[in-house]
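Running this now, will post back.
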Amino acid sequence: MTDFARILAVLSAVFLATANSWGNTDCGHELLASTPAPVEFSNQPAVVNEQIRPKWNPNLLSDPRHHNPNDYRYIIRVPDGSSGAQVRADVKKRVLSASLIAKKPSGEKFIGSFSGKGWALILRVPEANMVANLYKDTGVMSVTGSFRSDRTLQDYENRFGFHTPDELIKRSIDWFQKYPSQKPYNELFVRGGESVAEPVTVTGLVNFVGRLSSWETAEQKDALLHQLSQELGVPIISIE
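Update: finished.
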């Protein structure tokens, strides 16, 4: 075999090894050579963590109509858009990224850091719509588009994990204390759209006191929230 042939053989082997490693990357993103088909969700919840799923019953989380500033747990989402029509369309997306915030009577709390807005939606998420969650940013919205259509909800659960609300808050706090330079944030992978038996709904608005987007004043944010509250028929709560 000539030197040129040996070099060509080595390069071919490296190329094949690299191509085969693209299925799973360190950042959790799956790279595919061709455009994948959309993921097909069924109306049945994943079966891996059925003992944990009931802990996410929305009746066990807080009701913003009866907000207790010293004891709450809310699923929130920063929406795309800020009008009533835009918000209604936003929560009908087939895949939603959300987060859990909480405060305990002991004073321990986890609010998280959310870019773009100083407010968020409070969501009622049926427990069957909960797919997975993680105590840090999972990159759900960037990786779901590259998952193969033959993946099931169980695959998503296995990939990201599934914690109870209390476990998720504890792990979120521990993660932020261990890595204080990172933005505190946890992420919930939620199904929405037409693929679910029961839809995700907006039950309230949360105003993060002292947080503003780069383009608004406190007065503008208050006016927007009151307008949105009237359009959606939901209460506003304030959290510091």
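The chain has one domain: 32-239. More later if anyone needs it.
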